[in-house]
Amino acid sequence: MTGSGKSNAIKVLLHRLSNGPLREALRVVVIDTHGEYAPVAQKTSLSARIIDVQLRCSVLDEDVVRALLRSRRDEALIDKLAAVADELSPEQDLDEFLAAVELEAPNAGKLTRLVAAAREADDLCLWPHDSAVITRADSVEAQRLDEAGLYILDYADLCVMPTFGERCCRPG
Question: Taking the model in full, what pTM does it have?
Fold first, then answer.
């Protein structure tokens, strides 16, 4: 539905919230699909931050492993990866995991190919809970949403969401 005033209503709401009595404790997240709220945010008294979401696929996800290797399901390989991951602490990252996989089975065909493919990819993480990271738009540092303010996800130029979904969320 176009022309019904949705965008204007959001702008008025943001302006009123920014001048309201709760503005010091207020956290607002706006998903901006057309890039129109960032300029409005600068006119409010809320602390505005443009944020981004980095989406990555976990190398422990069976569909990701199949895509990296361009192969069929290999339960033994998935079990081996899980066993290596089980030996790691939650603080360890993808590079440490890949090094551990290499030590576990040097020159082991699929594992070696997986490590090489994972090192070439720029959208992987180790742990599934690290697959979505909110960052400031001008930095790769993680952005927590626990501070009062206005957070705007400028989705207008973000094209990784459908790609991520197609690669990591669909079976087969």
Answer: 0.62
